[in-house]
Every structure is written in C-alpha cells, then in structure tokens.
C-alpha cells in the first residue's frame, strides 16, 4: 500500500513535516497534488471524504484518511517506529509536536499578522512589529525550551527517549526554516543552543533524510511557504 499525501504543490509548508516522516520511514507514498490532475483530486477530497479535513495536509492510508499534521505524525509514528510504544511516551511526542505547531503558526504570522487573504505588502508595518517581537522574545522562548529538553538533566541525542521520533524530524524542519527566514537572528541565537544545532546535524546525516534533502522531492524554501525570507524582518 502506498500512502497518498495531499498537500499544496510548490511549497514545503506544513506538508513537509509529514514528508520528512515518510522519507525517514522509507515509506512508499505519492505526493498527489504534484502529479498531473492532482489538484483536482485534492480539492475533490476536501469535499467528498467521509471525515473531510478542514485543509491540507491529510494522508490516505488505504480506507483511512487522517488530517492535521500532529495527528498524521502520531499515526505514522505508531506505524513506522517513529514514536514510543508506551502511552506516556506517545503522548509526550504528540505534545511536543503540538508545541512545534504553535511555533509554526507564529512563524507564519510574522509575515501575515493581519489576514492570510492580504498580501505581505498590504500588512508590512504590522509584520515589521510582529517579526521584531518574534525575533526578540518568541524564538528564544521556543528554542530555549527545546534545548532544555536535550540537555536537562543530562545531554541526550533525541527529544524523546534514546531513539529518533517524528518530533526530532519536525524540530529539524523548524531549525532549517528559521535559518532560511531569519538567517541573521539565527546566526546569533544558535550559539546559545548548541544542542539544537547538534540535533539538526544528526537528523540531516541520517541516510534516508540525507538522500531526500539532495533529491528533487525536497521543494526549496520560497516566498509562498511558511518560512519566508524578507530581509527587513530579519533583525
């Protein structure tokens, strides 16, 4: 059975968190909307599924359809050994993923603080204020939290237990995205969180992830995704 991933073509966006888990697992999957006629299938599925998603991404696994990134990753984690087997461990990984989802929303809102229906240029003054606070207070708060998990009470390689989970893959994606969107700020801040840089490098070196990053399956960051680079916002 090949999984079917439904997400907008041309951007990494929230779908990238799912792609990373599928790639790490070596799972057979189809990125539906990137194929001919795929957008029609995506929009149709939003209307016709028994349990329709509010928005992409959603994943089809046979007769099962799962929406929302954290929900999809909880399912894939259980299917492919990317989550702990115990209930406390599974819930902890899920909690971390939900925290990452909060961070991703805040990243998006740096360039679209008023409305997603408006262009960035239509809300630039508000974006400048939002991004300044995000860089000054919110990035350190989130990075500090995850760094503490990797260092306290003692250094560890992964966020949950002694094995990689989908939460580590997602944190890798966040660090990559923040480096793209806020390169000056991240260059300053990463010095304070070496454990996060080490985790990022550890994930990037995993064979399946390294192969994916070098392939054309990995969509480059661009100005239509969540992590966008606007020089004026990177202070």
- Helical stretch count? 9
The N- to C-terminal Cα distance equals: 47 Å
Q: Portion of residues in helices? A: 40-55%
Low-confidence stretches: none
- At the third CATH level, what is the topology name of the domain at 87-206? Glutathione S-transferase Yfyf (Class Pi), Chain A, domain 2
Q: How would you classify the helix and strand content by structural class?
A: alpha+beta
Strand content: 5-15%
Structure notes:
With 235 residues, the protein is an alpha+beta fold. It has a domain of 120 residues: Glutathione S-transferase Yfyf (Class Pi), Chain A, domain 2 (Up-down Bundle). It has a four-stranded mixed β-sheet, covered by helices on one side. Helix 4 runs antiparallel to helix 5 and helix 4 runs parallel beside helix 6. The radius of gyration is 18 Å and the shape is globular.
Set out the fold topology.
Blueprint: E1 3-6, H1 15-25, E2 29-31, H2 38-48, E3 58-61, E4 64-67, H3 69-80, H4 87-111, H5 124-151, H6 166-181, H7 183-189, H8 194-204, H9 207-213
Parallel strand pairs: 1-2
Antiparallel strand pairs: 1-3, 3-4
Helix pairs in contact: 1-3, 1-6, 1-9, 3-4, 4-5, 4-6, 6-7, 6-8
Which key terms come to mind for this protein?
alpha+beta; globular; 9 helices; Glutathione S-transferase Yfyf (Class Pi), Chain A, domain 2; 235 residues; 4-stranded mixed β-sheet
Q: Could you give a short description of this structure?
A:
With 235 residues, this protein is an alpha+beta fold.
């Amino acid at each position: 059975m090949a999984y079917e991933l439904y997400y907008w073509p041309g951007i990494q966006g929230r779908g990238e968190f799912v792609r990373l888990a599928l790639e790490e697992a070596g799972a057979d999957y189809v990125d539906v909307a990137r194929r001919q006629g795929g957008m029609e299938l995506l929009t149709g599925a939003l209307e016709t599924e028994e349990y329709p998603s509010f928005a992409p991404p959603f994943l089809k696994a046979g007769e099962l359809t799962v929406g929302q990134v954290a929900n999809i990753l909880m399912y894939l984690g259980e299917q492919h050994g990317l989550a702990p087997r115990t209930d406390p461990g599974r819930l902890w990984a899920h909690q971390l993923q939900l925290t990452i989802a909060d961070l991703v929303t805040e990243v998006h809102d740096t360039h679209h603080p008023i409305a997603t229906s408006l262009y960035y240029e239509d809300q630039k003054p508000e974006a400048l204020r939002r991004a300044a606070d995000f860089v000054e207070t919110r990035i350190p708060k989130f990075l500090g939290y995850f760094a503490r998990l990797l260092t306290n009470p003692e250094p560890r390689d992964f966020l949950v237990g002694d094995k990689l989970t989908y939460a580590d893959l997602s944190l890798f994606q966040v660090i990559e995205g923040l480096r793209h969107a806020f390169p000056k700020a991240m260059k300053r801040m990463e010095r304070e969180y070496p454990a996060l840089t080490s985790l990022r490098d550890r994930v990037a070196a995993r064979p399946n992830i390294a192969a994916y990053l070098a392939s054309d399956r990995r969509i480059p960051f661009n100005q239509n995704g969540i992590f966008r680079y606007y020089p004026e916002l990177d202070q």
